[in-house]
Design brief:
single chain, 172 residues, mainly beta, four-stranded antiparallel β-sheet
Length: 172
């Protein structure tokens, strides 16, 4: 049986694998270091991780989810939450709700301080999700299982732009 308790001092922060690391001209704005928690304590329907962001950086692009809801708890440091058209200052002890939706719920946490920003990220773990990226006009569609929870033979993960969409009958 998995131990249901884990202290944050036992979480090892890691940078993503090369295929998941930021690339391109804007890679300089990102600093992604996360430590897994959920799988280590037996979580099934919620995902948890510890995230650390260097000063002046962010961990991910401005985005919203159509299925998964997220919550963040600021542990240390200061920053700014970009949420829809608004911006909010952040400090240790702040709790952030990021419900599902479109551009109005798009969010991004930016470290505006001079020290590392650390937060606990919690989200629902749906087998299917659609993310939208308002800054770049992209979307991400992903599916890793069927409604019964049974894994699919292969994961579906597509990143595109709406204007690149094919007609439903294309190739049929």
């Amino acid at each position: 049986m998995t131990k249901p308790v884990l202290n944050l001092d036992e979480v090892v922060l890691q940078t993503p694998a090369a295929d998941r690391a930021p690339k391109g001209a804007n890679a300089q704005y990102y600093d992604i270091r996360r430590g897994k928690i959920a799988s280590r304590i037996g979580a099934r329907k919620l995902g948890y991780n510890l995230t650390a962001v260097a000063p002046g950086k962010t961990s991910c692009p401005f985005h919203s989810h159509r299925v998964d809801e997220e919550m963040f708890f600021i542990l240390q440091g200061t920053g700014e939450l970009r949420y829809g058209d608004a911006r909010y200052p952040l400090r240790a002890g702040d709790v952030i709700a990021c419900p599902t939706g479109g551009p109005e719920t798009a969010h991004q946490i930016i470290n505006t301080g001079e020290a590392e920003l650390r937060y606990l990220a919690v989200s629902t773990e749906s087998d299917v999700d659609i993310c939208e990226y308002p800054d770049s006009g992209k979307y991400l569609a992903s599916a890793s299982g069927d409604p019964s929870g049974k894994p699919l033979p292969r994961q579906v993960r597509v990143i595109g732009r709406p204007e690149d969409s094919l007609d439903y009958w294309d190739g049929e």
